[in-house]
Amino acid sequence: MNKSSLLPRSFTHVMAKAVVPAALLLAGCGGSDNDAPAAGNTSPPPAASAPAANPPSGDTRLHDSLVFTLDPASLPFGPLAGTTAETDRWSGVLNGSGYRIEVPRNWNGHLVMYAHGYEGTDPGLKVSDIPIRRYLIENGYAWAASSFSKNGYDAQAGIEDTNALALAFTTIAAQNNRPLAAPRNMYIVGASMGGHVAAAAVERETMATARNKVAYNGAVAMCGVVGDTELFNYATAYQLAAQYIAGQPATSYPVADFDSKEEDIKKELWVLYPSILTDKGRQLRSAFVNLTGGPRPIAEDSFRLKPLQEGVWRRFNNDGTLDGVLNRNVVDTRSFVYQLDDDPAQSVAEQAMNANILRVTPAPDANPPRAVGLRWVPKVNGQFDVPVVTLHGLGDLFVPFSMEQIYKRRAQANGSDQWLVQRAIRAPGHCDFTVAEQVEAFQAMATWHQTGVKPAGDDVLTPAVVANPAYGCTFTRNNAGQDDSTAIDVSRRLMPSCP
C-alpha cells in the first residue's frame, strides 16, 4: 500500500494482535470546503501559504478509472453461532454492490443499515456483517449491509449504495418469498469512513441532493470522519509538523522528497521509534495532542504504540486528492496553531514555527456541489434533525478525537446540537470498541428516537473536562463479550486505568 493510502477497515484487528507481542510499546478551516476550525486553533493563522497540487478540473477524476469486482460466492452467510434467534438471510448483487440482509422471524419493523469502513483501493469488494448483529437479531431488528460499488475513500458511493439497498429491502424480501411491510423506522450505523457515511446520510444537504433518498430516523457514527475533509487537513498538518520539528521542513506541497527523508526524520524524533522520544520527539507529541483535540487521557500513551503511529505515517505524502476521489487538492492547513508543549501561551519557538512552517492552500472548489447527486466527498455540515449518537476513542491517531469537536461546533452553529450525543471511549486505537460499547450507543440512539428521552453523553469541547484523568470512563466497557476479540482487552490494558 502506498503512502497516500488510508488504512483498511481490518486495521483495528491488525493493531490489536500486534499489541500482544509488543507489550513494551497497536483540523483547520479556511478553504471553500471547510467551515469550522480544528481543535486547538485559537488564533488567526500566520500569513503564509504554499502552492497546492491542482490536477485538471472538471468531472474527470482518477477514481472513476478504477475497476472493482465482486465475488458472488463471498456473499452468502450462515446463521450466527450461539443464538436461538431464527432469521431469514439473503444475499445478492444490487447495482454492482454486494449485499447481505438478515430479518428475524419476529421482526419488530425496524431496519438497521450498516456502512463499513475504508477498504483501501483494493479492487475486490466485500460485505461486512454489522458488529452488533447478535444484539439486533435477538431483539427483533433486521439489518442490511452493502459492499458499496467502489472502494477507496468514496463516501459518496457508501451513501448512495446503502440508501439504494434500504429502498430495495421490501422488494428483495418479496423476491425471497417473505413479503414484508415497509420498515416503520430505519436507522444507519457506520464505523470510520462508514461513520462519515452514517453522519452524512442524515444531513440536510444529503437529503436534498442524493440520488437515492432515504429519511433515516437516527444514526450512530463510530470512530467516524465526522469532520469530512478536516481529517486530511490533520494528516497533512501532522506530517508538516514532524518534518519541521525534525529540522527538515517541507518547502512545497505535495512533499516530493518525503520518502527519502523519512528515516532521518524519525531518528531526530525518536531514540527507539516510537516508544522512546528525543526532546524533539516530545515536542512532536505535544503538537500531535493539540492537533487532535487537546490534552486528554490515552492520547500520549497511544502515541507510543508502533502500529498506531505507523498508521498515521503511512498516510503521509499524499497530494490532497484522496487517491483520486477528487481531482484537485482539498487540503487546507492555514489555520492550524501548532503547540510544542502543554502551555497554551505561544513561546518564542512556537511563534517561529507558526510563522515559518509550510501552509497548504486548497484549490478553489476542490469539493464543490455536483450538478446531479452528492459531492464527491459528502459534507457533514452539522445540519440534521434526527438523533445522532457518536463513539470515539481518545487515543485514535488515525481518525482523531478532534473530529468530534469539529462536528459539535458545526452542529452548534447550525442549531442541530440538540440532536447530537457524543461519547468518549478510553481506547488507544482506531475503532477498537467493545461490542458492549457499540450496543449501548445503538440502544441510546434507538430509545431516544422511540421515546423522546435524550441519553447521556460527554462534553467534548471544554478543555478542563476533556483533560480530566477520569474523562471517558462513563461509557467505556472494557469487558470482552461473546463477540469481542480478547486482543481488544489486551490493548486497553496497556492504557491508564480509570481513577
From TrEMBL:
Biased composition range(s): Low complexity: 49-58
Keywords of the record: Hydrolase
Gene Ontology molecular functions: hydrolase activity
PROSITE patterns: PROKAR_LIPOPROTEIN
Disordered as annotated region, ranges: 36-63
Protein name: Alpha/beta hydrolase
